[in-house]
């Protein structure tokens, strides 16, 4: 099955009509495409970001061919965009979402918060890659052990062990810091 139309030869389109038609088709199917993205990405803001990047790619697309099945093409784009998102988040595992600090908290509380955040970032950075990925997928992306096992091609038991060990690493690091502080 060909996604691109090849029945008759047309001159290349310079005005972006095909891209606009494809973008309109993706907008028409945005609910189902976002649901598809949501299966792999737990944060709604990330779902929106991925979808918006897809639309931008479509609008920048230069092609003289019309897409026969825009929804199928949209699913493939979503799949590629999700993979790109996951690769990017693995490249920067030490960047945690910053928790807002209450302006009424005192400076000592803010210092402790930043120390904990730095400690967590360091522990995550020092973890073996599989352990870190399983932990981040579970705790930050809200994926189930089954989803993680499928995505990482591991058994659910292995995923459970990686997450447990990551939690132990964090707990030990906090305990060490507490003992060093006294």
Describe the protein.
With 182 residues, this protein is mainly alpha-helical. Helices cover 69% and strands 0% of the residues. It has 8 helices and no strands. It has helices at residues 17-28, 30-38, 44-60, 70-91, 107-126, 129-139, 145-152, 156-181. Helix 1 runs antiparallel to helix 3 (44-60). The longest helix has 26 residues, at 156-181. It is elongated and about 65 Å long. It starts with 16 loop residues before the first helix and ends with a helix. Mean pLDDT is 77; it is low at 1-15.
| Straight-line distance between termini | 69 Å
| SSE order | HHHHHHHH
User: Which residues form runs of ≥5 with pLDDT under 50?
Assistant: 1-15
Strand proportion: under 5%
What is the approximate shape? Answer: elongated
Radius of gyration from the CA trace? 22 Å
What is the average of the pLDDT values? 77
Report the total helices.
8
Structural class: mainly alpha
**Largest sheet: number of strands, sense, barrel closure:** none
The helicity comes to 55-70%
In terms of quaternary structure, what is this? single chain
What's the β-strand tally? Answer: 0
